[in-house]
């Protein structure tokens, strides 16, 4: 998978590239409007992560340029401007998703994965790890062909963890993923704990042991 | 005691004008009496001369006495010297049974070697009647004058102060948030009021400018903070994935993550507040309030395993005209507040009808002014769980759509009422 990240903040750009490279993406970075245009014209990407405030022009203009040139890359906007207008303008111009800063890399990664799945129907709609199998179309979960019945929150949590498998995902990132970013949800971190507990219990009943591990109270990790 | 300008003006007129008029009438009375006496003296003098002239030319036929007019008495030469001043006396008239006051003047005169005392009389009755009548006429005139002055003064001061009242009314309607445009008359016809209006206009322009700058500043500052916050978040995600993580560093990272999360949340809420202030939610639709409320309650029940016992009576299809995102934020914060500040095994009661939304929940007693909970950064007792901006957002949104909000707390029961009409 080829990914272009257009972000003028070097430190953030480096984080994003590092994260996606670890997940097996081929990443390139651009730090200005012009660099972004050049890269897009020269190469084909599967997905573009686009900041709106760029030196030399707006990310929205870049998006316009991209769509006018009939390029069909999936685009996710990352912006410090969370204004609804920007969001609507971005989506109108053909962005596929919109994420407001500050975001979690695990969330960005989940969004990119979901976008690629939707956009290219590439791979399958099934996530698998060991005996764990999630059908994203039917929204069913099974372990060794035994169906596991989950609530919506537990299902969302498991999909998120499986997407970010073998990584420690913070409780805060999970809370934001489940509850959305709009509400004042500091209290919700406590509730993540109970969702994880229930999910663990249900998985254990089907005999899949310590699939979901707690890491020093910081977060959780899904690995074999 | 504060009174209106007009009352104050009339009051001082009513206090001071009668005093001035009273002093005036006393002066008038004194002068009137003085003039009347002077006139009487002259009359007596003239009469005396006339009587004496008549008597000395025609002694035989003229009587020596005429009651109420004159007396001529022959006296010995050694009579005591007489006062030159007129004196008061009174005569009794049997026919009318009246005692009549007179002024008399007596002079000594010589004629053909004999001495005479001539006394003339002038009645004081008429003159004192005249004085009293004139004085009363004057009192009536003064009373009319008083009334007239007060009325004219009120009228003219009302006219005079009209531009001031106009400015006052407009300045009263001014609101830095809702009604920041103040158009005051530049030419009122009165220099001081022109000056007042121009000073006011300038002052308000300054206030508006400062307010707008501040709003803009909050929004810009919040925006600028988003990127560093994003960087911190991303670096923390790498750190917690570090294989060399120890328990000690993990606990430090946990604290940093929590603090950073709180900072992000605060920043987000501040940004939202600034945006509402900056009127960046102009699009309004008919929002199905009942529907949004049900959805939010459902979401919260889904998300929170120990959601308090919920009883609700929600009237269907209550519509309000507002921005749908703001309505969601409003309701989400109200419901969230009732959930977060609840007690274990507590309850939430939600009631919605066409007039109002009532959300009641069990909770811990709170200290301090309940209204203050709606101020920015005012928190209840579980400070770490909230940013202190949730209810401020609720207040701001309610203010934007001119909905009245009321908070009531009694016996560990908290009730928020939002009036929809």
From TrEMBL, chain A:
SMART domains: REC, Trans_reg_C. Residues 124-224 bind DNA. Residues 2-116 form the Response regulatory domain. It comes from Dyadobacter linearis. Residues 124-224 form the OmpR/PhoB-type domain. Keywords: DNA-binding, Phosphoprotein, Transcription, Transcription regulation, Two-component regulatory system. It holds the Pfam family Response_reg. The keyword Transcription regulation applies. The modification 4-aspartylphosphate is found at residue 51. This is Phosphate regulon transcriptional regulatory protein PhoB. SUPFAM superfamilies: CheY-like.
From TrEMBL, chain B:
InterPro entries: HATPase_C_sf, HATPase_dom, His_kinase_dom, HisK_dim/P_dom, HisK_dim/P_sf, TCS_sensor_his_kinase. The chain crosses the membrane at residues 12-32, 130-152. Pfam families: HATPase_c, HisKA. It catalyses: ATP + protein L-histidine = ADP + protein N-phospho-L-histidine. Its EC number is 2.7.13.3. Keywords: Kinase, Membrane, Phosphoprotein, Transferase, Transmembrane, Transmembrane helix. Residues 220-421 form the Histidine kinase domain. SUPFAM superfamilies: ATPase domain of HSP90 chaperone/DNA topoisomerase II/histidine kinase, Homodimeric domain of signal transducing histidine kinase. It comes from Dyadobacter linearis. The keyword Iron does not apply. Gene3D superfamilies: 1.10.287.130, Histidine kinase-like ATPase, C-terminal domain (3.30.565.10). This is histidine kinase.
């Amino acid at each position: 998978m080829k990914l272009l990240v257009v972000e003028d903040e070097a430190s953030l750009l480096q984080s994003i590239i590092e994260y996606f490279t670890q997940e097996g993406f081929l990443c390139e970075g651009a730090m200005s409007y012009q660099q972004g245009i050049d890269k897009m014209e020269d190469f084909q990407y599967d997905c573009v992560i686009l900041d709106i405030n760029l030196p030399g022009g707006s990310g929205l203009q870049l998006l316009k340029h991209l769509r006018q040139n009939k390029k069909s890359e999936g685009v996710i906007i990352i912006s410090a401007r969370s204004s609804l207008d920007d969001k609507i303008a971005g989506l109108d111009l053909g962005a596929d998703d919109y994420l407001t800063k500050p975001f979690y890399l695990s969330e960005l990664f989940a969004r990119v994965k979901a976008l690629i799945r939707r956009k290219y129907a590439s791979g399958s709609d099934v996530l698998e790890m060991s005996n764990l199998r999630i059908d994203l179309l039917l929204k069913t979960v099974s372990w060794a062909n035994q169906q596991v019945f989950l609530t919506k929150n537990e299902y969302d949590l498991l999909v998120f963890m499986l997407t970010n498998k073998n990584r420690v995902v913070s409780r805060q990132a999970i809370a934001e993923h489940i509850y959305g970013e709009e509400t004042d949800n500091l209290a919700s971190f406590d509730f993540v704990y109970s969702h994880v507990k229930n999910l663990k219990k249900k998985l254990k009943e089907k005999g899949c042991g310590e699939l979901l591990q707690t890491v020093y109270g910081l977060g959780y990790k899904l690995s074999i | 005691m504060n009174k209106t300008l007009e009352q104050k003006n009339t009051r001082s007129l009513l206090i001071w004008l009668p005093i001035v008029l009273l002093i005036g009438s006393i002066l008038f009375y004194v002068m009137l009496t003085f003039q009347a006496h002077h006139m009487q003296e002259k009359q007596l003098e003239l009469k005396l001369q006339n009587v004496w002239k008549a008597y000395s030319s025609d002694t035989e036929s003229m009587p020596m006495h005429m009651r109420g007019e004159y007396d001529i008495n022959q006296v010995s030469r050694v009579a005591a010297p007489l006062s030159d001043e007129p004196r008061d006396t009174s005569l009794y008239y049997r026919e009318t049974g009246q005692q009549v006051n007179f002024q008399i003047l007596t002079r000594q005169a010589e004629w053909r070697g004999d001495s005479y005392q001539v006394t003339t009389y002038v009645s004081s009755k008429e003159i004192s009647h005249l004085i009293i009548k004139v004085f009363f006429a004057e009192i009536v005139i003064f009373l009319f004058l008083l009334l007239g002055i007060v009325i004219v003064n009120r009228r003219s001061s009302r006219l005079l102060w009209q531009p001031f009242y106009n400015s006052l009314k407009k300045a009263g309607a001014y609101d830095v948030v809702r009604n920041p445009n103040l158009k005051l008359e530049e030419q009122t016809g009165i220099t001081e009021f022109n000056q007042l209006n121009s000073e006011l206009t300038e002052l308000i322009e300054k206030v508006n400018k400062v307010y707008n700058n501040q709003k803009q500043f909050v929004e810009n500052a919040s925006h600028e903070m988003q990127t560093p916050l994003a960087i911190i978040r991303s670096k923390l995600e790498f750190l917690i994935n570090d294989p060399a993580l120890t328990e000690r560093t993990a606990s430090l990272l946990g604290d940093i993550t929590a603090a950073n999360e709180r900072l992000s949340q605060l920043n987000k809420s501040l940004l939202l507040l600034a945006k509402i202030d900056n009127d960046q939610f102009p699009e309004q639709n008919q929002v199905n309030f009942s529907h949004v409320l049900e959805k939010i309650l459902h979401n919260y029940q889904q998300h929170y395993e120990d959601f308090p016992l919920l009883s609700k009576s929600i009237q269907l299809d209550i519509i309000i005209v507002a921005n749908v995102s703001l309505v969601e934020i409003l309701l989400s914060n109200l419901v969230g507040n009732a959930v977060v500040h609840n007690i274990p095994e507590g309850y939430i009661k939600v009631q919605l009808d066409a007039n109002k939304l009532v959300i009641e929940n069990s909770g811990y007693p709170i200290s301090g002014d309940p209204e203050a909970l709606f101020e920015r950064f005012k928190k209840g007792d579980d400070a770490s769980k909230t940013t202190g901006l949730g209810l401020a957002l609720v207040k701001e949104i309610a203010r934007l759509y001119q909905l009245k909000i009321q908070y009531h707390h009694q016996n560990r029961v908290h009730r928020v009422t939002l009036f929809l009409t």
